[in-house]
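re: ur question from yesterday

yeah so i grabbed the chain u mentioned. its 195 aa long if i counted rite. heres the sequnce exactly as i have it in my notes:
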Amino acid sequence: MPNRILLILGHPDGARRHLCHALADAYADGARAAGHAVRVIDVAALDFPLLRSKDDWDHGSAPAALLPAQQDILWAGHVVLFFPLWLGDMPALLKGFLEQVARPGFALGKPGEGGLGGKLLKGRSARVVVTMGMPALVYRWYFRAHSLKSLERNILGFVGFAPVRETLVGSVEALGEAGVAKWLRQMRRSGAKAD
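ran it thru and got these structure tokens back, copy pasting raw so excuse formatting
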């Protein structure tokens, strides 16, 4: 059954292409070839302010530049985030984007509505694709993938995404052409399956 897939490209450098871009393109190619509908948000191309206060979070609304992104998230049945690991976490621009779009009333119930609020994005699945310079095994086992687990549990899971799958692409500087080609094939397969 065809799915509606939203790719969120979280690499903050929009001036040139990186492995994240190629992986997202391969995923999109595989998904489209299998009949899935695909939309793409390139966070680097967006202009939005960062949240500065709890009051902004609780009572503000998403900036006009991000309203189409919210509509794309509502449209999607499956969301895939692509980003490089920077200082052990997602880049700040992607975190700022997620803070702006996942506001109370959109992703969560509003404050004062009892409990922690509802998971308003329930019924959607996600995949997180992270590129990194270190070996993926080192990130997963030595560093315990703390930032990835935080994203999966405290952001995506908290607003209702389930299941959340992950792909870690490590040692990117040492991949070579054959290694990159292998990951591109894997992304095409994942896109075709919409997982």
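noticed a couple things. The radius of gyration is 17 Å. also The chain has one domain: 4-193.
anyway ttyl
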